[in-house]
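Q: What structure does this chain adopt?
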Amino acid sequence: MQQSSMTIREAQQRVDEWIRTYGVRYFNELTNMAVLTEEVGELARVMARKYGEQSFKPGENQDPSEEMADVLWVLICLANQTGIDLTKALEDSFEKKTRRDKTRHINNDKLK
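A:
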């Protein structure tokens, strides 16, 4: 499998192209929110079995990367259909978290 890198903006464009080429159209926002919740649940199942105390059932997916990619895919769909630039949103989130938490975690004795 060939490794490639893409920006978040490129990922948003590629998902949009795929939807328009193969997916006919985006599911509505509420449907995609439900699908996102479902995908997060599937990721939680893999994580609970791989890193927690549960065990895998025969034939069950054991690869969290698949589930993480599914979560990201649906999140990108939601961003695309609501006009959100995820690159800008993530940059804004870094700024907000740095402003709010730049000393909070360093000074948290629970993390030492």
